[in-house]
Amino acid sequence: MMQAAEEACAQLEDELLFCEDCRLYFRDSCPTHGAPTFILDTPVPENVPSRALLSLPEGLVVKERPQGGFGVWCTIPVIPRGCIFGPYEGDVIMDRSDCTVYSWAVRENGSYFYIDASDDSKSSWMRYVACASTEEEHNLTVFQYRGKIYYRASQVIPTGTELLVWIGEEYARTLGLKLGEHFKYEFGEKELLMKLFQDLQLKPVDSISNHVSSQSQYMCNDMVTPVMQAHRTSYPLNNIGHTSSVFPLLEGTQNLVSLGRAQSRYWTFFGFQGDAYGRIIDKTKIICKLCGVRLSYSGNTTNLRQHLIYKHRRQYNDLVGTQGAVVDPHKSIESVSPCELASRAIVAPTVGRTTRAVADFIVRDLMPLEIIEGEGFIQMLAILDPNYKLPAISFLAHTILQEMYIQVKVKVVELVKNLQECSISLDFWKHSGALSYLTLTIHYVDEGFESRNIMLSSRAVAEDLSEGNLTSVLLDAAEEWGIRDNTFYAVGLNSSSVKVATSNVGWRPLPCVGQVLRGCIETVLQHHTIQSTLDRFRKLTAFVCSSPTQIEEMSTHGPVLKVHLKMFLRDGTKWYSIYTLLQSIVDHSNYFKNLTETIRESDIVLQQDDWSVLQDVVDILKPLAIATSTFTKDQFAGLSLVKPVITSLLYKHLAPNEWDSDFCKTIKKAIHEDLSFKYADHDVNQVLNLACALDPRFRGLDFLSQPDRVETLHLLKLEASNLAKLQTPEHTCVTPEPLNAKPPIKKVKQDSGIEFLLGDLCSVRNSSVSTVNQQAEQEISSFQTSEASSLCQDPLQWWKMHHTQYPLLARAARKLLAIPATSVPTNWLFTDAGLAVYRKRSALTAENVDLLVFLNGNRLML
Known about the structure:
Elements: H1 2-13, E1 17-19, E2 24-26, E3 38-39, H2 51-54, E4 60-64, E5 70-74, E6 78-79, E7 84-85, E8 91-93, E9 103-108, E10 111-116, E11 130-131, E12 140-145, E13 148-153, E14 157-158, E15 164-166, H3 169-175, H4 190-200, E16 232-236, E17 246-250, E18 270-271, E19 285-288, E20 294-296, H5 302-311, H6 313-323, H7 338-345, H8 353-364, H9 375-384, H10 393-417, E21 422-432, E22 435-445, E23 451-461, H11 467-481, E24 487-492, H12 496-505, E25 508-511, H13 513-525, H14 528-546, H15 548-555, H16 559-571, H17 578-587, H18 589-596, H19 608-631, H20 642-653, H21 662-678, H22 682-693, H23 706-726, H24 752-758, H25 772-785, H26 795-802, H27 807-816, H28 826-830, H29 833-843, H30 849-857
Parallel strand pairs: 3-7, 11-15, 12-15, 21-24, 24-25
Antiparallel strand pairs: 1-2, 4-5, 6-14, 7-13, 8-10, 9-10, 12-13, 16-17, 18-19, 19-20, 21-22, 22-23
């Protein structure tokens, strides 16, 4: 049990940081100096040539060292002490024989793995930082934090100085290396540490705790009082009431002076330096009797307790165990569980209401963290709460928001783990320059038949969206969230690379109907005749809006026209709003025709042919505009709407008529070809048809041909049967009684003699026991022949009321009706809301994109 407790303590220390000024460990933020500053790498996508060099932060440069190889130098005036670089990036390797001089070992749950930065296309600039040859020349210290490797500036680094990392006691203790009682915890050249790595995997996991020295000395020679010797002696602690307890104290500590009024048990190990008369010389510095370190003292025992927890864990456990304040006095420390021990040792700092409100504001409005440094924001907070002090951006990002992220991610992982079927949507968006991101969102229908959407990670992707890069990104995300096996469909861009990548992961690709409709409308607007007509009308609109007389006259036709003309000038021809603008223009055609009679400039005058073109465009765009508005009813419209809408566009609203003009027929033909091509894939049509077959509004499948209808019902039977076979026994549904079912025919009792003679040769089948396939057929037949629902009814609400009547089909409905028709919320596609969201995302710094987009997308879980 003690070994388990030691391992729990090691895991706890993995969550702690170290203050170079206080010489104390802390969680998230130093009580005296605040949160540390993390120097972030320049964001560069993975697998980019020379990624390590490109990731170099501003103020650093890589160049050749006089002794050979490369190193990193500081080019800014100064790097403050305590700044943290990292994390160290590279390939994860498990075999110690694969380690190189670019490898660091990481301890996790009692075992080890290695981060190797040999490949400069996967690593960061930290691979070029050289190791110090001696303790005196180092200015960086390596340490492990939250399962990753970082470098911390152990002293001020002026400009022109090479960064040199040092492996000291902190990292050695993290790895559990036993280097001898009097071994100084420092290493020079990296090759020396490489030899120590060879011992890590050879140790049994359960013996790791034995390699942690319980009496490791705090090696800060300038902080050790001169009267104290390097060796230790056993000193009986009779003053705490347990004469049997023996703690190793430094010789000479009996001369230290304690406070006369001190009552805390922590004073057992601390005292002040006194003069010959026993008077305290300096009450601001207190000395540890175990290691001789001087600590700041401000009138309370906080620093004393922290020092014992992080530097003398065993003595602390024995102390609080014998006192009974933290551990029951009748229970030994070995009998305390590791989790209980860890939870008692550290209490997470509380976040004030105002600080939490600031964090919520950033998350909900998707604001860059730099906004809190704005003059207006600071002034507003000063008015609302004059005594409030804003936290540093680094503390907000790496402590508060990171804690919020972890809390939500734990909920999401637990939820996703229990999903049996879900779908995923792929949102590709451009951040800045050549940096693009892929944001993943999963979709499912819960047991209450409510549609749910959960945003997962946002990952940087190459701008060209190559199949290999995209496949790698999707596989990593699927592994991280555990969604590869329970995800069946992926909705995204209708590009070949996206189709291949999603298929490689095992997901069936489906096109985003919003992107398809956008392509159709842009096909109309890109026609040269329409473009020239719109250009002339734009000039006419500019003329009208620049003349006070015309503006006054235009106002007599109502305010709507004025608003639409200003939108036309400001926004141009946005595909999702152009129909409304053109319809308004055509409705007021008489006003514009009368106006053109007074204008002499021929290039801004619209002729009758131009008005005919505009009327044709309005007639063509009308069904497309209605289609887009149909999908905006829900946040994510269901896939079952796609096939009926596309079919009605192809064969009714956009089908050529005998009264169409030649121009109109040409445009309709182009749209027809585009739509037919986008939905020509047979597999895609099968999924669309299945979704329609489970939608009570379209259950009759009247818009399908007879062969397609037969195929769809057959596939539906297979889908429902397969899902039923995968279902656990406790969820197996009883066959429902079909609607309008006739009373069962009474079975004629067989002659007992026949049964006696032939019963063993011919198995007697009970016709009342239906197989899963038969049950599926019965449910489909009953569902198909029942009355269709209203087109305005929500299909999931219908299933919520009828799922017990069709248990097998209900399971299939939860799977197929969860598939979204679009890759992003529909209002992002068909309104200006999407522009606002992507504008906010692009304003985020690259290192905070995943964090803030995730929290914003799942803000209801906070």
